[in-house]
Write a structure and sequence with these properties.
Helices cover 88% and strands 0% of the residues. It has helices at residues 2-31, 38-80, 90-135. The protein is elongated. The N and C termini lie far apart (67 Å). The mean pLDDT is 85.
Length: 136
């Protein structure tokens, strides 16, 4: 149990650092307005794609995989050890808390990835509008 908990701690630290490094870029990209003009919008689209591919997707996929791998063990711990917040066992409580933090981080990464994908769609829609106006 302690080895699994140590592995989960290490993974949580790695994911937190990976997510923290890219978080500022992701938020800045989401706050950026879609510029007027075809070339500026195309530059923004390439920046959004880069942030999606290098910032969002790797961290999201790794956290999804980690949550998926440790969730069955967490469920087993909750049922086998009869986890209760009133009967405090630091190892079991810590393990459950770390998995809960991992699940929250995964959920937040999924939300941010969805927002970046939505931003990409908005930029593509604007580019398509510019191209239609230019061809008329």
């Amino acid at each position: 149990m302690l080895q699994t908990s140590d592995a989960l701690n290490l993974l949580l630290v790695f994911l937190s650092i990976l997510f923290g490094i890219r978080y500022g870029e992701i938020i800045a990209c989401l706050k950026e307005e879609i510029p007027a003009g075809l070339r500026s919008a195309c530059r923004l689209r390439s920046r959004v794609i880069t942030i999606l591919c290098t910032g969002c997707l790797p961290a999201t996929l790794i956290s999804l995989l980690a949550t998926y791998l440790f969730l069955p063990l967490t469920c087993e711990v909750l049922t086998t050890y009869r986890f209760s917040p009133w009967r405090f066992d630091p190892v079991i409580s810590g393990f459950v808390l770390i998995e809960a933090i991992m699940m929250a981080l995964t959920l937040w990464m999924l939300v941010l990835s969805g927002k970046v994908i939505n931003k990409w769609r908005q930029v593509n829609h604007r580019i398509n509008e510019y191209e239609r106006r230019g061809s008329q």
